[in-house]
Design a protein that fits this description.
Six copies of one chain form a homohexamer.
Chain A (H helix, E strand, L loop, with lengths): L5 H8 L3 H10 L11 E2 L7 E12 L16 H8 L5 E5 L7 E3 L1 H9 L4 E4 L2 E2 L2 H4 L6 E3 L11 E6 L3 E3 L2 E3 L4 E4 L4 E4 L4 H23 L13 H14 L2
Amino acid sequence: MSPLKPETRQKLMGVSTATLCTALFKRGLSHQFIQNVRPLNAGLPNMVGEAYTLRYMPAREDRNPISVFLDRAHPQRKAVEECPPGAVLVIDSRKDARAASAGGILVSRLMKRGVAGIVSDGGFRDSPDIARLPFPVYHQRPAAPTNLTLHEAIDINVPIGCGDAPVFPGDVIVGDGEGVVVIPAHLADEVAAEAFEMTVFEDFVQEQVMQGRSILGLYPPTDEQSRIDFAAWRKAKGR
Amino acid sequence: MSPLKPETRQKLMGVSTATLCTALFKRGLSHQFIQNVRPLNAGLPNMVGEAYTLRYMPAREDRNPISVFLDRAHPQRKAVEECPPGAVLVIDSRKDARAASAGGILVSRLMKRGVAGIVSDGGFRDSPDIARLPFPVYHQRPAAPTNLTLHEAIDINVPIGCGDAPVFPGDVIVGDGEGVVVIPAHLADEVAAEAFEMTVFEDFVQEQVMQGRSILGLYPPTDEQSRIDFAAWRKAKGR
Amino acid sequence: MSPLKPETRQKLMGVSTATLCTALFKRGLSHQFIQNVRPLNAGLPNMVGEAYTLRYMPAREDRNPISVFLDRAHPQRKAVEECPPGAVLVIDSRKDARAASAGGILVSRLMKRGVAGIVSDGGFRDSPDIARLPFPVYHQRPAAPTNLTLHEAIDINVPIGCGDAPVFPGDVIVGDGEGVVVIPAHLADEVAAEAFEMTVFEDFVQEQVMQGRSILGLYPPTDEQSRIDFAAWRKAKGR
Amino acid sequence: MSPLKPETRQKLMGVSTATLCTALFKRGLSHQFIQNVRPLNAGLPNMVGEAYTLRYMPAREDRNPISVFLDRAHPQRKAVEECPPGAVLVIDSRKDARAASAGGILVSRLMKRGVAGIVSDGGFRDSPDIARLPFPVYHQRPAAPTNLTLHEAIDINVPIGCGDAPVFPGDVIVGDGEGVVVIPAHLADEVAAEAFEMTVFEDFVQEQVMQGRSILGLYPPTDEQSRIDFAAWRKAKGR
Amino acid sequence: MSPLKPETRQKLMGVSTATLCTALFKRGLSHQFIQNVRPLNAGLPNMVGEAYTLRYMPAREDRNPISVFLDRAHPQRKAVEECPPGAVLVIDSRKDARAASAGGILVSRLMKRGVAGIVSDGGFRDSPDIARLPFPVYHQRPAAPTNLTLHEAIDINVPIGCGDAPVFPGDVIVGDGEGVVVIPAHLADEVAAEAFEMTVFEDFVQEQVMQGRSILGLYPPTDEQSRIDFAAWRKAKGR
Amino acid sequence: MSPLKPETRQKLMGVSTATLCTALFKRGLSHQFIQNVRPLNAGLPNMVGEAYTLRYMPAREDRNPISVFLDRAHPQRKAVEECPPGAVLVIDSRKDARAASAGGILVSRLMKRGVAGIVSDGGFRDSPDIARLPFPVYHQRPAAPTNLTLHEAIDINVPIGCGDAPVFPGDVIVGDGEGVVVIPAHLADEVAAEAFEMTVFEDFVQEQVMQGRSILGLYPPTDEQSRIDFAAWRKAKGR
């Protein structure tokens, strides 16, 4: 896994998942938004990090008594202790939120270890506690039942699906107040750069629109005047 | 489209979608609530306006590259510039929130143009930005991918479905903190009047209930005393 | 129905639905969490009470005109007036939130009567008003249409399903910021006691984790040291 | 339960569920078709009989070990032995086909007892065996797991929902190759009579259409000539 | 609408929807298969024809009494009489099969008029009768309730969605025992030609595989020998 | 993988998935039935074999052009050539039938190689051709689009989920006309033996029921006479 460049991470901290989705769409990638997950805790900076994955399969009752956690090598607990700082733990819960993907203690441990965030297409338990942590957590909906009820953690750091998006270990995960997007590792730098530029322009457009300007000719800037105005604005703003 | 009377609009600003649904139910209309949409921004006054519609169909890839927006006549952009002030833009997104119906810039433009609000049975992108606008916006859930990913805007101001409700151009759309209801144009005045009256009575009932009174005989007022009390209350309150 | 013991109620006020689900899971019960309901009003203490149930069936139009509420014995109104103080009204709405299970006035009446809370696997109307009451209310999503549109109240205090969970009259219902769990009546005391103990330990673990300790050997406490530390912590905290 | 008149039963044997739905729609009833069930065995005459109902709730594991069937009074077994000959057993399985509503042996017993048929909005097990019986059986899809896995039979002959349709004991149930419709008991005679007449006309129309005639003016018969032709056809056919 | 060339129609009669989907996939089109529809009548030749569309919206009760069919210009009836011979009537029923898209008489009329087939992403009524017609009909599942219950026909021959596929009037519709695919009009000739060639090769491969040959090197023909064998086979077969 | 004993395979050829589900339920296993799959080809003997698994993840467009099949080591093709004779290929398609899991040629190859059958919780393409093969194939519904549209084959013979059931390589898969059940490898012998015995008894019961006997006391045989009769019947039948 090639490490995420600091400048790329920095750029990704300042762009939206919407803008990133457009940059990916231009490259023919239309399934990179993790569908139907939301942040538990609003008002945080973006979540940015490389994907470290955990795959769940349906639980078979005889393999999943409460005692399995006595095993220090249980993949769920192992993942929580081994997910690298700065990475995002992404869990394939098969979009099943009837039982938890993890709970408040494990999420707290990830936060303390310096992990960048956690995403599941299922649900977390202890969600009111999690919502108070200064840590980005995304899921479908709260789920109080222990994960053993329906999920068995079976694989660490393999390619997975999450919310119908393909996730490969090392892909760059970005989350904001809207949701989570998966950037293929090899595209991270160029997509971050393009999204960064797009954001400057969209900030200009938004400002113009709030001043009453029409979107026609401005967004996209098909009028020459729009491009001139943007250049002037950019210079004035020092962006 | 007969314009919405100011006094009707005024009444509709002060009643709930729940009360309106009951008034419509009494007239045999039971599919007028737009199912499964919610406001992005809480605490706003009611959204009231005549429906101006936009119909989306599934996107075919060859017709929906990013370059389509270079066309100033693209129906989505056209709708945003032509939706009348005071109207509500209602989008038929086929209940598909996997890609956006529109984003923050277009929504801002609608707000600046004096449009009364926007509703989609899909999802909006830039939802955290939209949530900060003093403008009523309703959708199913956030959706970062550009609309081109799955939607093609194909028709403006034709009859549509939105959240399983029938919407005809000119129908009166009312949204509150609960959701959005569609009042057929020809019923708007009488439904507004009836709902306004119902609201006065419900305010009385709510006050009585909070003082400890039973609902039996009061709601509905089958006891003579309830009607006497209501008359007195109404007089005292000047309503 | 054996009354809920005050000390059991007290314990249940201080534990989470997540912890209760684990205690139930250990006893072989894995369907006791009411799926897909959420609190309308955050920040309240736990909801705890014995289940008093109301069963809805699909509405047949000729049996459900608005005039049915003129009948004081209508099961919905009857349930609202007869649900015992301290109990939780649990409604089987067949997971159908397209029409309301009840509205703000009935919910207010329940609150005033000293009922402990209300749960429906459908939706409530007047949800913005309900959200301002200091009263625990759980549902799937807001629903403005009157219940008569799709629901007929048909049975009071019979065994029902709610959000795929089995609910028997007298079962103990606990709700928190995450959701709602159903404890079989005969297990209430022992499950409350066990969950209470688990909560003490989890509070210790959470504190340790927030101080940087690994979960391995701590959660569960397979390391002898963890158990020693916990004993000391508990003594120090007086818990 | 007033017994179904033989002539009504006879008429209902000869009409389709589609025609019956139209007759009910004309009376303001639009939820009487049991959604999403299909016959296991094609080519049988219509199923006609009064509803005898069985209500399932979600199974709680401790109440539903395999040994419950040692109890001769178990509601599922009781229903199978007590459903009156000529009646239709209608099961409310909460549209959940992940576990069986019943299996081949119980269905065979119903057939031998002279019951008119069985409907569940869940699934039956032993479906290949059932498909070979000369007995009308309708369900959503096959389900091999025993009913105890997810269903507990809790009530006999109470009002229920089945496939989103309201079913009261004594309602008249009609099934054909398309599905199953529920006729409120008090409407059975008139709806049967009307549907019988409609069927004569539709047979005429179908014959005309197959001979190349346009539907305009014929269906409905807005052209005078259509009514004349129908009268002549009817006379010639002796219907 | 440019007419479908006879040789293109002829080729499309002999290829599968699976092969056509692959040819479309190679051109970047991945949403052209109408999802979740199936043929009512097995064993027919392919359905091939240009799309003639009908759009349904949610029904509003006051606009959809049974009497609307007295109007000869009702869009549903009009579409049935005006759909050109050789075309396929494609109905956008918003994937809602709770009420019918049409019934046996209308379908019979289409057949007699020489229409090539009919597709709805909802359901047809009189499905057992329809299943006996030598006419290709595709839907989601049977639906006895009259279309007026939930659908209002509102537009003829406009672009629609059907089963999540985009359908433009004049697109070429092909159905087989598997389902229905939509070929954009401008691609019909080239896609038909390519699929025709692919089918010859796949027939060869299938024959080889049934004789025990491995797919490696054969499918696709990465081994030189596979290509040699195919050339010989083709010559021998005269294809 | 310990090989499946011939006598166990033989027993499993003669029992139903329903009976096997009951035997598993008695052992506390309630998620072993693969939900929502059906056989394409009726009238075949049971499918019995050890699971050989293939895992699909969501397809990323840049990794899944049509050219990937030029690679002989592509996991889908590899699985088809390496799945052992006598085994069942089980595919985790994430319950997504919008694109194919495989097509007729690959299925034919599996059949020729002596594989026991194939199951996917998605859909197969070329389903009409597959339906004519004397080979057990189970899926959710037909799907013409190539698997590359939505699926990337990523792992061979790892633990997977299929139709919400846990499947481990080597588990014993049994399919009949109803569906498919997964027997944990270590339980195969005892479950087969028990189901075989249960089947003898159920055949006796079915015969008795068809002769008019009540199920009470017979099924289960709580009456002493039932056990006596069964013993006699068994002796007479030589089973």
